[in-house]
Amino acid sequence: MVRLDTDVVKDIFLELGADLCGIAPAQRFGEAPEGFRPTDIFGDCRSVIVFAKRLPAGPLFAASCIPYTRLNDLLMTRLDDVGYAASLELERLGAKAVAVPADDPSEYWEADRHYARGVLSLRHAGYLAGLGVLGRNTLLKSERFGNMIQLGAALVDVELEADPVASGEACPSDCSICLDACPQGALDGNTVDQKLCRPLSNYTSPRGYKLYKCWECRKACPDALGTR
Ligand code: SF4
Ligand code: SF4
Q1: Ligand 1 pocket mutation, candidates 60, 201, 203, criterion most atoms within 8 A of CB
Q2: Using CA atoms, how far apart are residues 150 and 222, in angstroms rounded to an integer?
């Protein structure tokens, strides 16, 4: 098996435009559902590299959903670009890398619950790679950028130095601001009811555009913007 320096690997992602990068060993994913663990996706996976790009906060405060929708979509493309270019660079260094899409497509779908599951849960991967903690709004909360991040990942057949999982409570015990802010009552503190959330977070306009018409759970959190 090829050996790579962990700092060199992280620098590849950071120089390609990632704002955060962390590493989790594949064996940390034992509690993920069967079929959705890194080694289910790529049998030779030894380490999961999780990276994040920052989402500008301005669109949270816009009256129109168009800026948020467009920036979020753009960010997903940029994350996939980072995963693509980093995979080629890792391959040049002798490793095999499988980039995980930042967003769609996904295969798993429960029609009755309108429930989709990505091939790898990026927010759990981000937690396991030390990028942050999971809030009751189900978003990953990083210290620097709060929840204003989106995530990508690459599975590699190389053992890298792991980052510690972030410690500490994600949310004050008595906080339910995000749950109360959800206009659909879709949050229960552990998960989001996708059937309730989708009509707003995955709204289809009469012309067929997919629009994010709600981000209240992200915006309402007092830690939304992090320390920057
Ligand atoms: S995006 Fe909106 S509808 Fe969906 S969980 Fe968040 S606040 Fe609720
Ligand atoms: S609003 Fe409160 S409960 Fe919700 S994620 Fe933020 S700190 Fe946690």
Answers
A1: 201
A2: 18
| Shortest-distance atom of ligand 2 to CA 172 | 7
Cβ of 201 closer than 6 Å to ligand 1, yes or no, is yes
Distance between CA atoms of 194 and 201, rounded to whole angstroms?
Answer: 9
Nearest atom in ligand 1 to the alpha carbon of residue 201 is: 1
Query: Does residue 202 belong to any structural domain of this protein?
Result: no
Per residue in 38-91, pLDDT (tens digit) is 999 999 999 999 999 999 999 999 999 999 999 999 999 999 999 999 999 999
Task: Give the pLDDT confidence score for residue 167 in this predicted structure.
Answer: 87
Does residue 68 lie within any of the structural domains?
A: yes
Compute, in degrees rounded to 10, the torsion defined by CA atoms 172, 175, 181, 183: 110
**Smallest-distance ligand from the CA of 220:** 2
For the chain, give the percent of residues with pLDDT over 70.
100
Judge whether 10 lies within some domain.
yes
Which helix (DSSP H) or strand (DSSP E) does residue 97 occupy?
Answer: strand 97-100
Structural domain including 142 reads: 6-168
Q: Is residue 191 part of a domain?
A: no
Please state the domain count of the chain: 1
pTM of the model: 0.96
* pLDDT tens-place string over residues 159-175: 999 999 998 889 999 99
> Domain of 157: which CATH number?
3.40.109
- Residue 21's nearest CA partner among 142, 109, 159 is 142
